[in-house]
Amino acid sequence: MSLRFDVLHSTAAGGRRGRMNLPHQAVETPVFMPVGTAGSVKAVPQETVESLGAELILGNTYHLYLRPGHQAIRRMGGLHRFISWPRAMLTDSGGFQVFSLSGLRKVTDEGVTFRSHLDGSLHSFAPEHSMDVQIALGADIAMAFDECTEYPASRERAQESLRLTMNWARRSLSHFRAHQNLVPWHDAMNGQTQNLFGIVQGGTYLDLRRESAERLVEMDFDGYAIGGLSVGEPRQLTQEMIAEVLPLLPKDKPRYLMGVGYPDEIEEYARMGVDMMDCVLPTRAARHGLLFTSQGRMNIKNKQYAEDQNPPDLDCPCPTCRRYSRAYLRHLMQCAEPLAATLNSIHNLAHYLDIMQRVRQSLQSAQTV
RNA sequence: GCACAGGUGGCCGAGCGGUUAAUGGCAGCAGACUGUAAAUCUGCCGCUCCUUGCGAGCUACGGAGGUUCGAAUCCUCCCCUGUGCA
């Protein structure tokens, strides 16, 4: 049974208000997905992530493969059960690690050889292997194994990288389709199956992006992602790439912009027609003392907040803002108390989720096209 | 009282005759983080001034003298701390 994605409303600007019926959760879109790389949205317990309203969170193939190992997770009933997350999940394929672990890996047509960042041991990742791992993890959505092209990349480099990603996409899909019945919860979801998304690459070259999108659509994935953006390129280019690609993707399938972004970005791209986004920013920035508020950025470590008894964000109803002061959060940061990471992350996630909630409302009330 | 070992910038701690306003670390101040090698990384961190520069002046390595062209570094005395012996 293929992924059911309903577009409930769409706007002249291309924005869509939708609902994605994943095996573990009906997800209201556009959606922001907190990142939980190693089976945890860092510093925030699952029940809190849930109560903040997150419906879909990420996990990472590479990290979970290294620790505790996908076979172990399969034996324990899959990732959902292992981490006790009842709602939807998506696993990234390890493609981003091809990019971020650039010093520790070697890429060939066959796949990637990584050196573990944990103990230096050698591991190979090919599209087929990434699929096997992701099937064992059993997220609602798996991602094709891709190469996230760096910026800047010459046209030749972007083209070669794209060739690899398209080749890997085909192999990912074919292996996934052949084995997707092996997902740990196969018999428990009324015939709903795990889904696989393809990933558009092409660097900052419009024609390559176009080519990438068209070829992926031909392959017929359950959804489509735009990858390789927000990797250092100017914002203008990011927008151009998104604007070029979105119209080429099927209207009845979800569109996922990977790894983006700042609060204003997720709003902007959602209004352009992106249905899903994920980003480490709210949680990582939180751990480093940066809060995103309705008034903009706030570095809560700053001395000026030492005795400020206001809540971090005067307009925020999140658990952190309801109960704690700027002075207290600053104090926790200064003492490096783990609670600082937790409370800050809760606020930032709430802020991101709230932005998307508002965008959904606004798309819903916008004139239907 | 005697014998050792020590006293260095907010703290800890290197340096033991000259590129030394003085290595490091911590604390402090500020900045950065975009499919998480990130509770990480970067910058500043004696005082004053300006034409903000591998700029100028001042003060500084327990205290006071001394040796030397030059001392945190060597010598003398004093003060203090730790350990051991009385």
Structure characteristics:
RNA-binding; alpha/beta; 14 helices; 369 residues; three-stranded antiparallel sheet; globular
Write structural notes for this entry.
This protein is of the alpha/beta class. It has 14 helices and 16 strands. The strands form 4 sheets. It has an 8-stranded parallel sheet. A 3-stranded antiparallel sheet has the order 1-2-3. Helix 10 (263-272) links the parallel strand 13 (255-257) and strand 14. The longest helix has 28 residues, at 338-365. The mean pLDDT is 96.
Main-sheet strand order equals 4-14-13-12-11-10-6-5
Q: How would you describe the shape?
A: globular
Q: What value does the average pLDDT take?
A: 96
Secondary structure: helix percent: 40-55%
Radius of gyration: 20 Å
Question: What's the layout of helices and strands?
Answer:
Elements: E1 4-10, E2 16-22, E3 25-29, E4 31-34, H1 46-51, E5 56-60, H2 61-66, H3 70-75, H4 79-83, E6 88-92, H5 95-100, E7 105-107, E8 112-115, E9 122-125, H6 127-137, E10 141-143, H7 155-179, E11 195-200, H8 206-219, E12 223-226, H9 235-245, E13 255-257, H10 263-272, E14 276-279, H11 281-287, E15 290-293, E16 296-299, H12 319-323, H13 326-334, H14 338-365
Parallel strand pairs: 4-14, 5-6, 6-10, 10-11, 11-12, 12-13, 13-14
Antiparallel strand pairs: 1-2, 2-3, 7-8, 8-9, 15-16
The structure holds one RNA strand of 86 nucleotides.
